Amino acid sequence: MDEEISIINTESRIDKIKKYLISSRKQLTILIIVILLILIGFFGYSKHLNEKRLQISELYNTATLNFISNQNKNIKDQLVYIIKAKDPTYSPLALYFIIENDIISSKNEINDYFNVIINEINLEKEIKYLIIYKKALFNSENENENELLEIINPLLKSDSIWKSHALYLMAEYFYANGQRQKAKDFYAQIINLEKSNKTIKLESQKRLNRDLSEK
């Protein structure tokens, strides 16, 4: 008897499932179509991004090789296009290549491209801090104290591995401009910073002992 009841209950559950599937057929069909469209869209978008990145990498390689070969036609336009493509790898590389080879002379234009990379590209945190440091380094010979501090301030407030580099840049800036106390303060921060780069920490200690000692 118990076995017969169990069989009946099982058949009843199966019938309920069948009825549910039949009654919900339209909704299930729509759900399946939506899922398929999402998957197709995702893989299609990923493919598009991969193709775009391949195009950017090929353009970067071509532009840099042409520059080295003294075939400089459209080099600037190609590198600027790469920057504006906002690729996490090749946009910074394009800007570095422009700076290292003096392809663009306008400091304001260079800073605009730094801002694109820093503010408009989804970068890993430490990569972003490194680019902020490079922007500050680029401006360190021309900007006044407040402007330079404004550029580098996000890095000074961070716990980044590049913080000691930023502190050293400011310390050297103040030392070169004869602001000894401010220089000492920044060198001291490097000495006390737990994550300080070893070489920078050593150079800071030398500077304090040799050039900024009270003796």
- N-C termini distance: 105 Å
Oligomer: single chain
Structural class by sheet pairing and helices: mainly alpha
Care to count the β-strands?
A: 0
Q: Which word captures the global form?
A: flat
Gyration radius from CA atoms, angstroms: 30 Å
Number of helices: 10
SSE layout:
Blueprint: H1 2-23, H2 25-68, H3 75-84, H4 90-100, H5 107-120, H6 125-139, H7 145-156, H8 163-176, H9 180-192, H10 198-210
Describe the 3D structure.
- The mean pLDDT is 83.
- Helices cover 78% and strands 0% of the residues.
- The longest helix is centred in the first third of the chain and has 44 residues, at 25-68.
- The chain has 215 residues and is an all-alpha fold.
- The chain has a domain at 36-123.
- The protein starts with a helix and ends in a 5-residue tail after the last helix.
Short description:
By secondary structure, the protein is an all-alpha fold. 78% of the residues lie in helices and 0% in strands. It has helices at 2-23, 25-68, 75-84, 90-100, 107-120, 125-139, 145-156, 163-176, 180-192, 198-210.
